[in-house]
Structure formats: C-alpha cells, structure tokens
Design goal:
The protein is an alpha/beta fold. It has one domain (2-38, 88-201): P-loop containing nucleotide triphosphate hydrolases (Rossmann fold, 3-Layer(aba) Sandwich), CATH 3.40.50. The chain has 7 helices and 10 strands. It has helices spanning 14-27, 49-57, 77-82, 90-101, 125-130, 147-161, 181-188, and strands at residues 2-7, 32-35, 38-40, 69-71, 106-110, 118-120, 123-124, 136-142, 167-171, 197-201. The longest helix is centred in the C-terminal third of the chain and has 15 residues, at 147-161.
Length: 211
C-alpha cells in the first residue's frame, strides 16, 4: 500500500504527521517505511530536521535509505537543484519510490510543500501524484489565517485529478495556532468526500494516527 502525504503549503506539518504515523505503525509491528524522496535546505552535514525526524522515527541512520535527492538551498526543488547545476530525474524519482515500497506492506511518501510546487520547470508535485496512481492521498492542513482558502484550493485540484484525500489532518504547528483548528475544520468539512477520515491535531499533541 502506497500513501502520498501532501499539504496545503510548506511548514504545514507533513513531516510531523509522517513521523508520527510511521512510529505508530512500527510500534504496532506493522511492515512499513516512510520516505522523504526530495529534501531541500540542508545543513553543512547534508541533513535537515525533516530527514532526521523520519530517520529517528524508524531507528535508521543513513539518509540514503529514505531520500533520493537532497539539496542545500531551502527552495522549491526545481530551484534548489538548479543552484547545484542539477535537474531532478522525475522518472527515476517515481521508480525509486516504487522500488522502496516493494519490501514493505505500507510505504509513506512525503511530498514537498503543496501541490503546485515545481519539482522541475515542467513537472509539479501534482504530476508526481499523477505518476503514482495506486497511492492514497493524505492531506495535511497547516491551520492558521488563510488556511481555509489554501485547503479548498487544494481539495478542488485533487478533485479535478480524481485523487480526493482519504485522510485529512488539521494541524497546528505552533501553540497559538490551536484556536484555528476548529474553525478551519468546520469551514472545510462540507467540501470533503464522504468517508474521508478527519484528524485534528493540536500543537505537540500525543496521538496515534493509525486509528
């Protein structure tokens, strides 16, 4: 089973959700793996908080086990790669993710930012999702001012793609954003597909996300 975790924007909490889910799955003895195939914004050691969080959640140490492309510049992958005179090979990216999923029952693929983030100058995150037709889509909403608009735009795009999310996470990334969870959920809920599982996550809330 493949699960593609995307978000309404950058810093919405994708990594926190992905790490929490994979940690819960592994604690339950499930066969699972979480990937961060593209990571931008590396430190001098070639790591960042996202990579370290997913490695720690899986008791892994080698970034190559979960990540294919990593760039120093904290920018969209197309720009971060260009800064190093590189271009993401999208076919290789898709095939790498597929190969990584073959030895586990569940594979989580954490995307980059929102749906319209450019991976290359002609290929966006939504194209990555299109190229992974068997994956469930989970959507992480960073609850704050403007989140309703961002979420409804994202839901409309996913609907056009025929990939409406099976789970949605209303997430507060800071304590002061906790109060945005309920109004954001109430505004968005009428636009969700029937059967979409809803999670509301206050800042640093300890919760098992596999229920």
């Amino acid at each position: 089973m493949l699960i593609f975790i995307t978000a309404t924007d950058t810093d919405a909490g994708k990594t926190w959700v992905t790490a929490s889910v994979i940690r819960a799955m592994l604690s339950d003895g499930k066969s699972a793996k979480a990937l961060k195939p593209i990571a931008c914004g590396l430190d001098e050691a070639g790591r960042n908080e996202d990579i370290d969080a997913l490695l720690s959640a899986q008791s892994l140490s080698d970034a190559d086990q979960i990540s294919l492309y990593r760039y120093a510049l904290p920018a969209a992958p197309s720009q971060a790669a260009a800064a190093e005179d590189q271009v993401v090979d999208t076919e290789k990216l898709v095939q790498w993710c597929k190969a990584q999923s073959e030895n586990v029952d569940t594979c989580l693929i954490e995307g980059v930012g929102g749906l319209m983030v450019p991976i290359t100058d002609s290929w966006l995150v939504n194209d990555w999702i299109d190229a992974t037709p068997d994956a469930e889509v989970w959507l992480v909403v960073g609850c704050k001012l403007g989140a309703i608009n961002q979420t409804l735009l994202t839901l409309e795009k996913l609907k056009q793609m025929g990939r409406s999310p099976t789970r949605i996470f209303f997430n507060a990334t800071k304590p002061e954003f906790n109060d945005w969870i309920t109004p954001t959920r109430k505004a968005v809920e009428p636009f969700l597909n029937q059967g979409c599982t809803i999670h509301c996550l206050e800042f640093e809330e300890a919760v098992l996300l596999t229920d």
